[in-house]
Amino acid sequence: MRGVEYRGLARIEGPVVVTARSRNVGFNETVAVYGRDGGRRMGRVVDLSEDLTIVQLFSNNTGLSADDSRVEFLKEPMELRVGEGLLGRVFNGLGKPIDGYGEIFSSACRDVNGLPINPYARTYPKDFIQTGISTIDGMNTLIRGQKLPIFSGNGLPHNRLAAQIVRQATILGSGGKTPEPFVVIFCAMGVKYDVARFFLDDFERTGVLANVVVFLSLADAPSLERLVAPRCALTAAEYLAYEKNMHVLVVMTDMTNYCEALREVSSIREEVPSRKGYPGYLYSDLASLYERAGRIRDSSGSITQIPILTMPSDDISHPIPDLSGYITEGQIVLDRELAQREIYPPVAVLSSLSRLMKDGIGAGMTRDDHKDLSSQLFAAYSKVRQVRNLASIIGEEELTEGDKRYLKFEEKFESLFLTQGETENRDIGQTLDLGWQALAELPKEELLRVKQEQIEKYLDPILASRVSNEPEPEEDEWQGNP
């Protein structure tokens, strides 16, 4: 049905145009704006007052004039065409195919703003997701239905880590034995062309592109496209998860670019700024994205989110990571010092956290020693930091033998457990075994967070094999008198 059309604009401010208030205009309603050249520019309603309607364009305002332009309100929200043909396709930030294969063959469309989920219909996130990365699987476990962001910084290998997770992530069923179907929604916002090319080449080279849906909004795209891209991606995820009963992993990078676009648009609209110039509704806007993850009672599918954000100046108290940490269930923090020491992935395990980890590990899910081993590794690595601080004051030579054992543990933990190759895919058993090998550098009386039966089952065989592999001391030959 054709919408209501009006002629003339009150004013034009960058990608924002202001027109007279129309009857029955709704928030987020799609709008078509026609210039004197006859070109059609799409946008959406972003604000309303008694007399005016503010429309944000998906493109630039070239060719528009206040007197000769026409505005058509289409009486419907922005929608994404969905169907089983989504898998293996590449779209721009507005949900339009850019891979040369045309539109998908489907008549089904969904509102990109999503539908509110009744909290009562949600089920608690559970089930272990194996990423093949020890620092995540062993100490900051990802759970099906969780939202677990990666906090990074400029120049750190968050893109390589995200690509590795997409290649290796597997959802394990009951008992951690049965892999279940798994697809990935990848959304890039405001990234450079070489970054986008890196992901596409990696997906094609490793053969995972057939199970990936890609939404790309490059750095030269309009700001509004960055705001729409994650909503299109999450709409596709909701269709595949809740209507097709698939398990979906949504990777979104870079949320900092999204928030910068939000601040830019807020400035154009002359809204009162909050912390560091970001709009006061930054928290609720991020929540409208993050809270679209989870599981619902009437569907066997699920949506798990891994948003990636680069912290400006590596400041974890910046509004973007600060608010994201409140909304999400933990964070994976990348450390610049570890990266400079060529440790990959450079995950700062003491600053990282997974609040739902306890619900997806243990006997019947991963292994009976997982929870206690993780707690012991955290405690021991935290003690290393205290020893390092003491050594910086008195020197390593003056440390006690017990403190020196902790330094040996640090070396073994970082070289065995933290460090792994980009193509190295470790199962959870291998990850936990490496953790025990690191703990073998410490005296047993220091291992207060693991049970005695776990020490006997997992640690004692490691110590016994070390003793058996040690070379016997050579006997001194007796030298007689000449």
Strand content: 15-25%
- The level-1 CATH class of the largest domain: Alpha Beta
Give the CA-based shape: elongated
Main pleated sheet: 8 strands, mixed
Q: Could you give the count of β-strands?
A: 22
**Overall tally of domains:** 3
Strand order of the largest sheet: 9-17-16-18-20-14-21-22
- CATH architecture verdict of the largest domain: 3-Layer(aba) Sandwich
CATH topology of the largest domain: Rossmann fold
Total count of helical runs of at least 4 residues? 12
Structural class, from secondary structure content?
alpha/beta
Residue share in helix:
25-40%
Mean pLDDT: 88
Distance between the termini: 115 Å
List the helices and strands and how they pair.
Elements: E1 4-7, E2 11-13, E3 16-20, E4 29-34, E5 40-48, E6 52-57, E7 70-77, E8 79-82, E9 90-92, E10 108-111, E11 122-123, E12 128-130, H1 134-137, E13 142-143, E14 150-152, H2 158-168, E15 170-171, E16 182-191, H3 193-206, E17 212-218, H4 223-243, E18 247-253, H5 255-268, H6 282-290, E19 295-296, E20 302-310, H7 319-327, E21 330-333, H8 336-340, E22 353-354, H9 370-394, H10 401-418, H11 428-439, H12 452-469
Helix pairs in contact: 2-3, 4-5, 6-7, 9-10, 9-11, 10-11
Question: If you had to describe this structure to a student in words, what would you say it looks like?
Answer:
It is a single chain. With 482 residues, the chain is α/β, with parallel strands linked by helices. The chain has three domains: 4-77, Beta Barrel (Thrombin, subunit H); 80-358, 3-Layer(aba) Sandwich (Rossmann fold), CATH 3.40.50.12240; 370-467, no CATH class. Helices cover 33% and strands 22% of the residues. The protein has helices spanning 134-137, 158-168, 193-206, 223-243, 255-268, 282-290, 319-327, 336-340, 370-394, 401-418, 428-439, 452-469, and strands at residues 4-7, 11-13, 16-20, 29-34, 40-48, 52-57, 70-77, 79-82, 90-92, 108-111, 122-123, 128-130, 142-143, 150-152, 170-171, 182-191, 212-218, 247-253, 295-296, 302-310, 330-333, 353-354. The strands form five sheets. An eight-stranded mixed beta sheet has the order 9-17-16-18-20-14-21-22, sandwiched between helices. Helix 2 packs parallel to helix 3 and helix 9 packs across helix 11. The protein is elongated. The mean pLDDT is 88.
